[in-house]
Design brief:
The protein is an alpha+beta fold. The protein has a single domain, classed as Nuclear Transport Factor 2, Chain: A, CATH 3.10.450. It has 7 helices and 5 strands; from the N terminus they run ααααααββββαβ.
């Protein structure tokens, strides 16, 4: 067999095995990929995109259905619309922040691996976008379990004096959390 035909046969065999696994219900990998800096970026941008599309269209059904079943069971589209009404009322389009690298203040996985929490902000101007997201593993991916997004008033940021520095212990992750490596800013 010639060498240039071999990769084609490997791809065909892989495709057949994958199709057989899907058709016959063979067990697939049951856990999502381990979170790292790149995964954290993907998850945050994905969740903000879903929220932005819901805000722009006024249709929160996809956001609810895209999240985990736990999230969907306690959040109907009408309640999600009322929660995010302030952002929608101001006409804020979250899409421009997606090109920025978020600054993480928290990125931790619970020790049992049941939840991943990503908190931080997009350093956008004139308004910064803050987020606090929680994900849970469902089959092979991390799905949204909780979401909080706020756009503080830029005028408040300018007039407030800086907050006093927090004690060093306060910024350490709790002992039940495993830190997730954060992405490095691009030059």
């Amino acid at each position: 067999m010639s060498l240039h035909r071999r990769p084609l046969l490997v791809r065909i065999a892989w495709t057949c095995m994958t199709a057989a696994a899907m058709c016959f219900g063979l067990p697939a990998r049951a856990e999502p990929p381990k979170p790292d800096g790149n995964m954290a970026l993907i998850l945050v941008r994905d969740a903000i995109t879903a929220l932005n599309q819901a805000n722009l269209t006024g249709n929160y059904t996809v956001l609810r259905d895209y999240a985990s079943p736990s999230f969907a069971s306690v959040n109907d589209p009408a309640s999600l619309a009322s929660v995010f009404a302030p952002i929608r009322a101001e006409g804020i389009n979250l899409a421009p922040v997606l090109v920025l690298t978020p600054q993480f203040t928290r990125a931790e996985l619970t020790d049992d691996g049941s939840k991943l929490r990503l908190s931080g902000f997009f350093p956008s101007r004139p308004k910064q976008v803050d987020f606090d997201l929680v994900f849970e593993p469902i089959e092979e991916r991390w799905r949204l379990f909780g979401i909080s997004v706020a756009v503080p008033d830029a005028r408040q940021d300018v007039r407030q004096s800086p907050a006093p520095a927090a004690p060093r212990e306060a910024v350490q992750p709790p002992p039940t959390a495993i830190p997730v490596p954060l992405p490095r800013p691009r030059d």
